Amino acid sequence: MFRLTKKKKHDLLAGYFFVSPWILGFLIFIIFPILASLFLSFTKYDILSSPKFIGLENWKRMFLEDRRFLNATKATLKYVIFAVPARLLFAFIVALILNLSEHKIIRLYRAIYYVPSLVGGSVAVAVMWRQIFGLDGLVNFIMEKILGMSRIIWLGDPKTAIWTLILLAMWQFGSPMLIFLAGLKQIPESLYEAASIDGATFWPQLFKITIPMLSPVIFFNLVMQTIGGFMVFTQAYIITGGAPLDTTLFYALYIYQKGFRDYDMGYASAMAWFLLVIIAIITFILFKTSGRWVYYEAERGR
Amino acid sequence: MKRFIKIYILIFLLVFLFLSSNYSAEVINLRVSWWGSQTRHNATLKVIELFEKKYPNIKITPEYTAWSDYWTKLNTQAAAQNLPDVIQHDYQYITEWVTRGLLLPLDDLIAKKIINLSDVAPQYIQPGIIKGKTYGINLGVNALGLVYDPELFKKAGVPLPKTDWTWDDFKNTVIQLNKKLGIYGVEGFTGQIECFKIWLIENGQWLYSEDGKNLGFDEETFTKWWKMMLELEDANAVPSIAVDVSRTGLGVEDQFIVKQKSAMSLAWSNQLIAISRAANRPLKMALFPRISKTAKSGSYLKASMFFSINAQTKYPKEAGMFIDFFTNSIEANKILAAERGVPISKKIQAFLKPQLTPAQKEAFDFIKLVEKYGSPTPPPDVPRHAEVSNNVIGPIWEQIRYKQISLDKAFAQLKSQAEKILQRQ
Amino acid sequence: MFHKRKRFYIIYYTIITIFAFVMIYPLLWLFASSFKPHAEIFQYMTSLIPKNFTLENYIEGWKGFGGITFATFFKNSFILATGVTVGIVLSSSMIAYGLARIPFPGRNFWFTCVMLTLMLPGQVQMIPRYILFFKLGWVNSFKPLIVPAFFGGAFFIFLIMQFIRGIPLELDESASIDGAGRFSIFWHIILPNIKPALITSTIFAFYWTWDDFMGPLLYLNKPQLYPVALALKNFADPTTITNWGAIFAMSILSLIPIFFIFIFFQKYMETGIATTGIRG
């Protein structure tokens, strides 16, 4: 054991002092459910009676026999690949644009762009979105009456159903946008002033100042949106239920169905842990490659 | 003398106190859970108030949610062994619960008349009997049938459904209605597994074999059914699956028949009331068509829902008393107004009949029709049914209607996948 | 110079206004529908102006059910959302500071821990978690919903960490030279400089709790304890009659508090950070 210097000892105590709420909470509330679900993944558990150990049966069935597992994976991957970048891009661009004006009224616009995110997973959103994409809904109305095209059965067509959900995700870009805005607000004005004096215009400022200073926040949004994308659940749960033909059967929705509808919680737990491994690997890759493009002011010159 | 009187009064008071403290014994807290929406919640809560007034030593803690959340919560409570005392239950899950010993057999309470079923017809009690014991008290009789609009039939010049109509009659009716009026002949029918189950009953078969390890129907029956359904779909006489899917989650009052975009609709008899009210015009209900004029219709009596008792309850007697009140009390049923289905007690049926709205009367009469011409209640679903239905039957039904699979391939897959699940340890 | 600026702003505001309208149209529909009688809601899908304006949805909806009005449900939502927000922002900022600024053995381990808890789907933790709270005797109260918030939330810890790492270390160091301890640095230097992050966290924590129905569904048995999000779901039952008008009306009402919290806290985001002094 190395000798702890006075500073190191001080840091150790201070560190654990500040982190203690997390450690306590983790030990009391979090660790049991996590370990329990790992244990359950090796059992047959129908909720109504005790779990029975069955070894790798769930895992075998998941990888080798379950066609719907593949459907769920496909649907979720499609969602992550399209919805996450689109949402991030929208959020970033709109945050930049809204940051251009200092007028008080900009606050109202910010609120309007954020409000869609507030309706989140409510029952009202489901009805509203189904109406807009319904047979006689707004979108078809525009397509027929204004664009002269024939109507599409958005939610009933296996080719289009998932896009209504991807569009919903994009419509709710307010959350990452808000975080981008917070990050933009934290960039010192002095940097921009100095750059203008040096003759830099909009684009160079964007790439030399804004993006680097914002990179910790960009990284945060990238990681969180990716993780969130893999766990997408509520919208599919209340709007499509996985239909049609499993094209909107997102992974987390399938887990829920397996656990609470088919009374197969052991299998659902196995699925959950597989997802955790995948997300962990992707997040790890994101973290490892972040060193190249994320700039932390606090680590300047190290 | 005065002293004696004082002592008398004292003793009298003491005895009175002692006796009355026995009467206002411990207050028993009973937890009752049910699903529904605003209407049912309000009605049930009023009934609970009445019950508490009648039995002041029983306090009821109501736990109610919407249908979509009910089983998530109840199953979680079951896992923690924290179930309510009286549980509203459903046909699809009750067998699972019974096989795991979570529900109390009620025969004892029935024999002791704590739950008094003396004026209930046996066919109404039958749905709640699983493995020879009674586990659920029927809260309302209903049956699957076809709601139809006589006015639309008249406009199209199509004869009204007869009590003994056949599947050919049905098919022609649907197609004719569509041809003459340009609307759907029937909605919510072709993709509905319940209809297929009724077809199986009429052909003397069932979804599963007796031991629950194999499919209970053959390819011929399966193919005949689908040929019929696909004929209707190909003629555009019924909504396509794309239309159906885009309308999931809508309530009964958003059906096509309400807006006169369909002449018939598949519905449970207790839904007739809501549909009629939304449509704001008189609608009638017909039995399922039969395979021949002399055969029985496949419509069968079902319990719309049950009240069951938690096997681990501390107060079986009081739980039974509550269920009895629900079933037999006239004031209670005045409030409930047959919203859960036709009440099983003859006395209550007779009492409610004169006060029924035309729609409610139609529902009651339909039940009588099913009693007369329908089939006996089939056995409850086997334990693996949920998994098979959600993961095999549902998807294959979808694929057939989306024309992504041929009928013979569909049957082969159905058989192999379903039996794999049914035979799994 | 002047009219160039003016022209820019005209184009600017035109574009963001059109886009704002597109963004908000669905909600305008919701708003308009809450004033339409039930039959009309689904009849005229695209109209934003009710043909028969009515307040019945609001009146009927407010009544709630079982004699419990939405006043109770809103009260519960406020209690839950405020409790959780206060707990989670305070604890998470503390934990974030420890993980971001203090080099101590085990730091990386605990950070990984924090991140990993974000990656396991909640659906499979629901039942063990419920059993845990049941054994603690906390079921049928607000405790399982509020108490864990005081022990930090992974999302917020990570977010605040990223903002803390954007603050130059010189600030900490100069304060430390002046004799300030870790906690003093945390309170006087770090917290004021991450105001946008704290505000954002407050807004998020509040509205996530406000919208959450799964937690209340499992842990609250007495309807008197239901928050708005859960009460709304009780209106929708596809097997019986669904009162869509009431759902819309109460959903709109439910949006108002969050909207105002948002606008209120936005004000504090305006003030940027003055860290210009450090280079001197």
Q: Could you list some keywords that capture this structure?
A:
heterotrimer, A: 302 residues, mainly alpha, MetI-like fold, 2 domains, two-stranded antiparallel sheet, flat, B: 425 residues, alpha+beta, D-Maltodextrin-Binding Protein, domain 2, 5-stranded mixed beta sheet, 3-stranded antiparallel beta sheet, 18 helices, globular
Structure description:
The complex is a heterotrimer of chains A (about 300), B (about 425) and C (about 280). Chain A is mainly α. Chain A has helices spanning about 5-40, 55-65, 65-100, 105-120, 125-130, 140-145, 160-170, 175-185, 190-195, 200-230, 235-240, 250-260, 265-295; strands spanning about 45, 50-55. In chain A, helix 8 (about 175-185) crosses helix 10 (about 200-230). The model of chain B is unreliable at about 20-25 (pLDDT under 50). Chain B has two domains: about 30-140 and about 300-365, Periplasmic binding protein-like II (D-Maltodextrin-Binding Protein, domain 2, 3-Layer(aba) Sandwich), CATH 3.40.190.10; about 145-300 and about 380-420, D-Maltodextrin-Binding Protein, domain 2 (3-Layer(aba) Sandwich), CATH 3.40.190.10. Chain B is an alpha+beta fold and about 425 residues long. The termini of chain B are far apart. Chain C is mainly α and about 280 residues long. Chain C folds into two domains: about 1-65 and about 240-270, no CATH class; about 75-235, Orthogonal Bundle (MetI-like fold), CATH 1.10.3720.10. Helices cover about 70% and strands about 0% of the residues of chain C. Chain C has helices spanning about 1-35, 40, 55-60, 70-100, 105-115, 125-135, 145, 155-165, 170-175, 180-195, 195-210, 215-220, 230-235, 245-270. Chains A and C meet through helix 1, helix 4, helix 5, helix 8 and helix 10 of A and helix 1, helix 4, helix 5, helix 6 and helix 8 of C.
